[in-house]
Amino acid sequence: MNRLRTLAICLLTCVATAQAAPAAKRTYDYYSAGKVDAPRAARTEGALMLLGGGDWPVPAFRWFVQKMGGGHLVILRASGEDDLQKDFLNEIGGATSVETLVFHDRAAASDPRVLKILGRADGIFIGGGDQSNYVRYFKGTPVNTLLDAHVRAGKPLGGTSAGLAILGAYSYGAMDGGSLLSTEAMPNPLGPGVTLVGDFLHLPHLEHVITDSHFAIRERWGRLITFVGRLATEQKDAGITGIGIDEKGALCVEPDGRARVYSIGRGFAWLVRPLRAPDVIAAAPLNFRGVPVIGIGEESEFNLVTMAVLRPAFRLEVNIVDGAFDAESLAALKRAALTPVAAAGGASGWALAIHGGAGVIERGDLTPQKEAAYRAGLNAALAAGQKVLASGGASLDAVEAAIRVLEDDPLFNAGRGAVFTADGRNELDASIMDGHTLKAGAVAGVTRTRNPISLARAVMEKSPHVMLAREGADQFSVEQGLPQAPPDYFRTEERWQQLLDWRRDHAAELDRTHSRGTVGAVAIDIKGHVAAGTSTGGMTGKRWGRIGDSPVIGAGTYAADGTCAVSATGSGEYFIRASAARQLCDRIAWHGEPVQSAASATIENIGNIGGDGGVIAMDGAGQIAFAMNSSGMYRGWVTSTRPAATAIYSNEKSP
Ligand code: ASP
Question: Is the CB of residue 223 below 6 angstroms from any atom belonging to ligand 1?
């Protein structure tokens, strides 16, 4: 497949030409690449591709190229140059030629050459930008007629962002130059900012539809519902339907109206179809109660003829009261946006992130050999987790597998190589949580189990309890038949020296370096289930049966499907006081914070009370985040679409 694509790209770029119309009074620019005059490979189909305005989901474009019979693609724009054409050639390929027409005014839409280029197009794609330009330049022109005729003649048409906005029978035209916010639309549904346009394109299956893009990320629920409500009233058409597409999504519509979503990670099409007008629509705040909102995900089947959604990703009913969502509706919408993408025939992705402890790790602290050894350890753990996830295994198994590798590696402060207590012992803490069932298991102060993470899992699965400590946990481990090890197994000379240093220099203080090396993992599997785990020897010089955050569910570890998975490392006392892992997840679930800001804010919160360390986190769609306020954190990540990578220092690149 790749080879074919490379060949196609080469064929196209080798004969690429870029011609601009004469500089004086240019009404459009024209670019072309590939064999514009060659016959197309196969027959075309009158399909539609509705894109949300973000990165292009490659499978959706492949589908589109197939619908245009691998023929001639024409990209329409009202700004920019040939960059979309280049993106297409680099990322997609498979077309006989690609041409771009960049319109500068309405006159271009009657230019015979433009009409000729469009007339012979096998597929047309309308780029993003400012849709008011499309309205001004195309509406009522020969280009308008041609676009309608193109699909009726059985050829595909697609659009993204502004190019999506104009595909419906009705469009938000942004005619006042603005980009209306939901919080502006709902209080004033008849206001001057709600510039709706009709009688523009007349495409099959979109006769009652108004579209919107960048949907969940810009919280456009309110504005789309306002558009739908206003149109339902003014057009006296209760069937007016809003379709919002998330940035990472594409809705691909077959000629017969059957449609499916493709997405990069989590991206939905949001169907707003109240089948009635709002309670009140006047020069006053909108009141519209009980509006159904249905999520169409990769696993869903949608039909634009019947408007039926099979296997929806979510179904909600929301209320707009006096120009605003009530609190419950807004929270439900934000939660829905975080719904995990269920496996569509095993096509969904997986992801794994790990850490090997945070602390004072400055560049130059580690010899090149030691740094390489740490990275090798992280890579071995990633490989173990990847093996599970890539073969369709569960995130819980991947988390356990990755952590076991790090526990066995004497470099890390977990299992073998754990730090010493004040009286010279290794006492190990670990926990694991399954985001699917919300079950959890933890052990504290265990001394003989080779892999404490597996003991934590046994507590979760084989005991009625969540946390077992010290002798009892050791005894449970033996009863479960888990591999045992003598105390010497855990001891390394380096950790022993760290204890001696600690005794000499700052006994009675918390060891601020944390002796670097608690380990943890978070993962999402192809079914969309998340899991998290953490394992540690704690802190050098810990006393009196001290237990840190690592085995405390909600502090060092937490996982909940659709929300997030977290593993922490650092000065455990502070992570416990801040309920760090649960705090991070609640920021996502309750406030809809993106995972990276939730992780950073949690670490900031810990810093504010005097703590230091880091977290690895993953949201319900597998988006990975790292945050730390220490100078380093051993960390690594691998996903179904990205190769394994590691980082150590705080300013090193993370995903
Ligand atoms: N959080 C661990 C603890 O307090 C130590 C660490 O992560 O370095 O036990």
Answer: no
Ligand 1 pocket, mutate which of 355, 419, 544, 549 (most atoms under 8 A from CB): 549
Q: Which residues pair with 100 in a beta bridge?
A: 31, 75
The two three-digit tokens of residue 407, written as one number: 């526990």
Please give the number of the atom of ligand 1 that sits closest to the Cα of 516: 8
Centroid of ligand 1 to alpha carbon of 562 (angstroms)? 27
Extract the tokens encoding 628.
């730390």
The residue whose CA is least distant from atom 9 of ligand 1 is 538
CA of 537 to the centre of ligand 1 (A): 8
Amino acid at 429: D
Q: Which residues are catalytic?
A: 518
Based on the number of CB atoms within 10 Å of its own CB, is 274 exposed (0-12), middle (13-18) or buried (19 or more)?
Answer: buried
pLDDT tens digit sequence for 397-447 = 999 999 999 999 999 999 999 999 999 999 999 999 999 899 999 999 999
Distances from the Cα of 542 to the Cαs of 231, 425, 428, 510, in angstroms? 67, 10, 11, 8
Distance 394 CA to ligand 1 centre (A): 27
Number of domains in the chain: 1
DSSP 57: -
Residue 585 counted as domain residue: yes
CATH code of the domain covering residue 631: 3.60.20.30
Is residue 490, in this structure, part of any structural domain at all? no
Reference 560, options 522, 597, 521; nearest CA is: 522
Task: Summarize pLDDT for 459-493 with one digit per residue, the tens.
Answer: 999 999 999 999 999 999 999 999 999 999 999 99
Number of C-beta neighbours around residue 150 at 10 A: 22
Map tokens 């690592």 to a residue: 550
Residue 378 lies in a domain: yes
**Residue 92 maps to a domain:** no
Give the domain range for residue 375: 351-416+430-437+513-649
